[in-house]
């Protein structure tokens, strides 16, 4: 089984590091628009890393499935990764994949909801 708690904790450490780099290292090197992309990527990375931590715990207790975790993790990588890449100079059209990451994150949360409703039905 994949260690989702460890992956979530790694994501959170990366979010803190990239957030600090954006706040202190990039400020004078990129435009305000690029800095906004960086901040958005870091916010979504951090929030979804915390969510992934919760999902990892829920998986341990069999209240969630690996599908939820995979959807969230791949969504994080595509969403935040594409925004970070554009900030660092990737072509602007590269942002066309950003919504794919967002959709995957939404699908992850919806899959968690479906799983929770199914389990709730079984417990009654």
From TrEMBL:
It comes from Psychrobacter namhaensis. Keywords: Membrane, Transmembrane, Transmembrane helix. Belongs to the UPF0382 family. Its main location: membrane. The keyword DNA-binding does not apply. It is found in: Membrane. InterPro entries: DUF423 (IPR006696). This is DUF423 domain-containing protein. It is a multi-pass membrane protein. Pfam families: DUF423. The chain crosses the membrane at residues 42-61, 68-87, 93-114.
